[in-house]
Batch of 4 targets.
Target 1
Amino acid sequence: MACSACFGGMLFGFDIGTIGGVLTLPAFMAKYGLPSEPERQKENANLSANIASTLQAGCFFGCFLASWMADKYGRKAALVVNGFITIVGCVIQSCSFGSIASMYVGRCIAGVGVGGASMVVPLYISENAPRAIRGGLTGIYQLFIASGTMLAFWVNYGSILHLKGAATYIVPLAMQALPAVVLVGCMLLNKESPRWLAKADRWEDASRVLARIRNLPATHPYVEAELKDISDQLEHERMLIGGATLKDLLREMFTIPGNRKRALISIGLMICQQMTGTNAINYYAPQIFKNLGLKGTSTNLFATGIYGVVKMVTCAAFLVFAADSLGRRRSLLWTSIAQGCAMLYIGLYVRISPPVAGQEVPPAGYFALVCIFLFAGFFQWGWGPVCWIYVSEIPTARLRSLNVAIAAATQWLFNFVVARATPNMIATVGKAGYGAFMIYSCFCFSMFFFVWFLIPETKGLSLEKMDDLFGVTELVKQIEVERDGHAGTEVGLDGKEVVREERREVLP
């Protein structure tokens, strides 16, 4: 079930892996007017950034469209529709035939589908997963992003080796639609989220689906207890606000302290994830490897392919060995420092001993290349998968779709910032762009303090127990006590008031 949905993550990974390599292919540069002369580097950087970042604009709006669709028609339907939208966008990109305007339109349409899927996938998985392995299952989303990036890197490499002319970039652009086709096919075989069914008052369907994905009979105590938790939480949420319009949900999100804290944490984590600089490398890895001294387009694409393999393998290792044992908080803390050190070394190398054209890469340069791969591994052990796990599990049921949509939109907004700014930073911020690496390094170090002071541990908690962690349950109990207190006096047969004892409930 999780892998079926996570092909929606592969949409994202395939795109960021494809476009970075395509932008360096000689046939693409000639067809779409990207200048190759060194003196026109800034012009090339601006055009490359526009092409790469147009997708993020579509992704930003796609998150909110998918949130509405996922709440109204279900998580499954939203994923299928976003898969079809992505296919349309990829076809337009492949058939642009040198029209830069058509390329922009295709990438924006594909972005609507990619962004929508990025919001629905972690939502769908977290609502289906048992709490004991929820981190690992939700983290598969990041694994599929890394897998898509790796596959796209090798498609680019194979295209330049074995294809000629326009086919070298048309094939990679068309291949972006493959994960979308698989997503649509796989999701048609899956069931709707039981928590969405419960929220829609389809309790019989919710019980049947939950029993199926837990592989237990519907009358099993585990299934009945989970359904009761879902029912209790929905009742508590209705008690707090009641309405279900967008205005009601936003009021519930930002006026209740526990919900507001969860929304702000989600936004903060997604900003931090992008400011590590990971997508700067994902989008522009060939250019970065060239700046570090590697020669030739095919060599740069080969190194980029190895980078993709490292990302996929380390993410898989994290999911198998650490996602539900190391914990969310510790994973974020140690990788903040590790990523910062890797970026800092790269920046210092480019500043102190930059590669010289025509000369061999020195040992310090090879270690800088190793630091790129180390950075990829560190990211996959913390800020890559953990952010998606965290923002999909902490919101309350009524607000989960909206909360994840806001978090995903924030991620795409800052993804856009990074994709748009990085080529210019590499071209202008210091010699060979060393300042870009220093800036990302500083962000990584500062994230350690953000996590240390503001991020609580959620490992092993059920989705319904997140209200306890963030203090919303206490608010509900207080409202119940006040309600009972107002109606807690009555007149007895003797005409005197009878005071009822305050009702106390013991949480299971």
Target 2
Amino acid sequence: MHCPFCRNPDSRVIDSRTSDDGLSIRRRRQCPKCGGRFSTVETASLNVIKRSGVVEPFSREKVMSGVRKACQGRPVTDADLAVLAQQVEEAIRQTGSSQIDANEIGLSILGPLRELDEVAYLRFASVYQAFESLEDFDAAIAQLRADHAHRQVSASSTTDDVQ
């Protein structure tokens, strides 16, 4: 790390702290030559391999813009989309891989989006799971209904246990 004041190629770390989101480290540094102090922020790089083979840095904003299209006309706020994008990034980082296929990102969006808004989920899933017919939609809707029924049974048994 070069000193931004005198361009000395050496610096000493004085303090290190994890950022609020836990995805980066802020380091306070001091130049041994001029004594200047400066901060750096370090993050682990996460790259996306697109279908064309091009590699680019992961972008929460791109996740949000892609999901925003599926959420048009739905009661979903930008704050909801920001939380979803953060959940997706955290899930991808937990895989431990520094590169991930763009399609894998699309698939990793499905779970959090399903919890956020089921109509938007169906819109998004129809693209990323390559729905080809009405039967594909019927199967996805049947799965959503089955999951709703399962949650209702689980919720009622939980309340029975409490009484």
Target 3
Amino acid sequence: MTIAYDDALRERIRTHLAGHDRRVTTDPTKRHAAVAVVLVDSELGEDRVDPAPVEDWIGGRPVLEAGLDGRMVDVSGGAAFLMCRRATRLTSHSAQWALPGGRVDPGETVEEAALRELDEELGVRLPESTVLGLLDDYPTRSGYVITPVVIWGGGRLELSPSPDEVVAAYRVGLHQLQREDSPRFVAIPESPRPVVQIPLGNDLIHAPTGAVLLQVRRLCLEGRPDPVYDLEQPVFAWK
């Protein structure tokens, strides 16, 4: 069942965020970054919003589990969020799934940084009045503290992904976060904390993005304040 993109959803999410005792991480050894959780409308079957040939960046990928070939298919419909596949030419976390975002520049607020990165990566310019609130800070193994900024897009939005940063962009229905097989937790020998996996399409989204999306489900949609900062990233994301 898809989720209706309407005023009732916007106000429910705004209320849940306003009433949340947000976890703030202060760590001078880590750089500050912001990601944009942009809530938009979508129609069934309009997952992809760019012309990038999938085989150019996913062809030949090993299939680690049955049905998981890395393709983001059959995920749109109703209220959705914007998801990107990072460009393969990037020096860090290339070709990984991510929310629009990046470093907070000196003098910027996290809200300003998230909106700027949204414009730079997907060509969407929105005012600060569209911000609904903030999720918990998530400290990463790669040296960042990420602040997720929840933004109401106000419709479908027309996207123009920057080829320098984004190889593909998708509208992913919020209902996909409530799949019966989601979330998944995996134990690894390198850490006592469980690795979180969010199944989307034919792939698994790991932390930090996976942790942010899990809190979108728990807090924004369900009103649950469960923390996600203690969920681990897979080892390949530690660098």
Target 4
Amino acid sequence: MTTKPRRSVNLRILPSSMSVLAICAGLSSIRFALEAQPHAAMALIAAAAILDGLDGRVARILDAESRMGEEIDSLADAVNFGVAPAVVVYVSLLASLPAGWVAVLLYAVCIVLRLARFNALLDDATLPAYTREFFVGMPAPAGAIAVLGPLAAKLQFGVGWWSSPWFVCAWVVVCSMLVVSRIPMKKMHAVSVPPNFAALLLAVLAIVAAAAFLFPYILVMVAIAAYLCHIPFSVRSHRWLAEHPEVWGERPKERRAVRRAIRRAQPNRRSMARLGLRKPGG
């Protein structure tokens, strides 16, 4: 008795399927916002962000990267992190203010412009290698989380100055400017953790996972604050790499060793720079 050969499952379609699911989550968040269910709307945008973070990695693992997949991912980002958060914020916080629609329109347009610039920079072979470690401006998922900050605060603490339509408008405009800015922001996968901090990182991840279930809106606000606080350090790292082309091809461990060596060789440089002083004869 012969058995029929099983059809092989083509896993190369999995990344694009995840992008489509992310689009469904983003669009569904709009529906729940229109039905006055902001909790579900924010949860679906968070789900879309998680799927967005996974689809690219799955594509690389399966060696399933394609031009079509990249275009689907870019369109999904425009919907999930541009259109959906804009509508959710407008319906939940800004429906009573005519200027609110202008603010969310600005945000959605800035997300699209940011994605277009990101796609254009991918094909620019003239950029130094170290620039691949940084985003130009706030990435779309981070922008979506940031713009939802006032809504998270309202859901956690109730009505307050953080839910005032004029404050929300100003916050949305600031987020829009960060999205289209030229500020370098470090990519998460480009951050290396020293081996002796691995156990601490795992403990922090466990705390974050627990907080996602127990205090999700506080976690959103903490994540926004942490991301905004990392920007000056990212700018400093970008500037340092631009000034030291000799380390562009080195691993993070070697880069840290070079930075330590430079600091030891010039112990007074930082204090003199703060005071605006120059070395004699310099």
